[in-house]
Amino acid sequence: MSSDALRAARLAVDECHKRDPAYEARTQSSSHNDDKTKVDELTYADRMEHWASHLIGLRIDTREYQQFSA
């Protein structure tokens, strides 16, 4: 995969994160009590990528995918 495609995918994912209500709630709170619950964009993106990788791994392990990719 070319680096341009990866860069475009990363930008698309970042834009989706910015529109996620959970992300917005964490980053836009003005309360000083919420400092520990705020998550910066990079940490949030890393968590989402980890979860997406987990879901992809689950899908790849299915019999249907193994038959499809054979």
Which structural class do you get from the secondary structure elements?
A: mainly alpha
Largest sheet: none
Distance between the termini: 21 Å
Number of domains: 1
**Proportion of strand residues:** under 5%
User: Strand-and-helix sequence, N→C?
Assistant: HHHH
Residue share in helices?
A: over 70%
Shape: elongated
C-alpha Rg (nearest Å):
16 Å
| Stretches with pLDDT under 50, minimum 5 residues | none
Q: Overall pLDDT, averaged?
A: 75
Number of strands: 0
Determine the number of helices (DSSP H or I, runs of at least 4 residues). Answer: 4
Describe this structure in words.
The protein has 70 residues and is mainly α. It has one domain (3-69). It has four helices and no strands. The protein has helices at residues 3-19, 21-28, 41-60, 63-69. The longest helix has 20 residues, at 41-60.
